[in-house]
Amino acid sequence: MRVAHRYLFIFLSLIVGVQASAREDVRVDEMFDYAFSGNAATGQKQDDEKDGEFVTGEEGKERLGVNAFLRDSAIMYSGLWAARFFYVRNKNSRIFDTSLSKWWDNVTTVPVWDDGDSFFTNWVTHPTIGAVEYLFYRAMGHGYLVSALGVVLQSTLFEYTVEGMVEAPSLVDLVSTPLVGVPMGFALEKSSDWLVSTNFVPAKILGHILNPMRNFIYERQVGIYNPFSKTFFSVTGPIVFTPNKDIAIDLAYPFFIEQPLPMGRFRADLEVVNLKKDLGGEFVFYSLRADVPSKNGLWGIYVKISQSGVNGVFVNGEEVRDGFEFANVLAGGKFLLWKSHNSAVSGGFELLLPTSYKDNIDRLTTITLFRRNYPVNLQGAWTLRPYVTAAAWGGIFNVQAMVSAPTVLNAGDLEGNSAEFNVDYSAAAGVNFPVIASPVLFAEFNGYSFLTADTFKKTDMFVTSGVRFGRKFSPGFAVQFPVYGVDKDVDRYSYMFDFQIRF
Predict the structure, then answer these.
(1) What is the pLDDT of residue 236?
(2) Which domains does the chain have, with CATH numbers?
(3) Which of 7, 261, 302, 427 could anchor a disulfide with 291, C-beta 3.0 to 4.6 Å?
């Protein structure tokens, strides 16, 4: 259970950075034009205007005080910790292998210039982080100098608390993060302002890429801007219900079935696969996902980024080094094909990109022993996955079903075939109880048929049962058991957590 508590702590840390002050969702017809103007970078709409554009930053009348700076710094600092838990590969040594005395010894040491990191890490990665921090403070409405001060503060906090837990502070990082990051952020902000002020759509899109804070901050609130519905949703604002959304939330409980009704949401999930004795330990999977629906609710798109890891795993008597690797990124979309008052059918398509870029100590190779989601972890593989998903509901009861046909290209690392073909199928049933906390009990069945498998069983089957609570903020817990197939030979059971914010 100590291992379970550690992974649950990691999972909770991934979602702590999204908490901001509550406010109502913004719905204005002019917001699309505003977001693509040069003023959305600051996230504040001022009364003063100059040449038809909003005056922002230090030019605006409003001056933000110390309390606002501290509040925004706390949000940014929480985000640093959440990012640390998500991306760092060797969590045991880079996060948990510490103590109060070790931290004190580190932070009372003179910062070292030669920290052992590569030139790219010191002079590209850290300055890029500094640029993002600068853009965050600017988007929150702070002036140039205050935003630069924020970068210095965050860099110092990172070196003396986040990394200071496990190593001495790095002088080169303390220098490069603000010294290079602030000018980089300034250049990105001004380039973004110019690009979004043009009437050329590709330029506007590039402007939102160069300054991603345009998409996540508005009027000093953290959330997401939906260009399809011209709406900004704060993560802690009240949810606005439409008929489709109300139903979709009641159906949004399965861990593996794609719901048919498009809905906006953030999702963080964690799964720990408890392995049988010959392997020992656990496989650990976690991911972050964002869904954005269209204004009419007929279609939506989503993106999912994943990490996969091992803990205490032995293969042929040799221990695989504990840690995590970045897995393949998923991009998908769905379209509502048919809907009645008590049922819906959607079609969708997903593309898994070969972003699992490093596997120098065979973690991902080991994880692909678990065949259920091998396309996520197979290095160099492209996966094309069309699917159809459907649901029916009545009273407090609802059922869902889904079938998909993934094609995995460049899949030779699995068992030598250049391509692998699957048919995946799922069904679920649930009961929504109309009481406080809106609990949902559910049972889910998942089957995977590996049509081209040559060296392992062609069919895998699992059953999952769990509970979910809430509507806008929705934590869920489930336990999955393998009942047949190749994964039954390695997997005892999995326990899963997730947390969704619906908008």
Answers:
(1) 67
(2) 2-232 (no CATH), 239-502 (2.40.160.40)
(3) 302
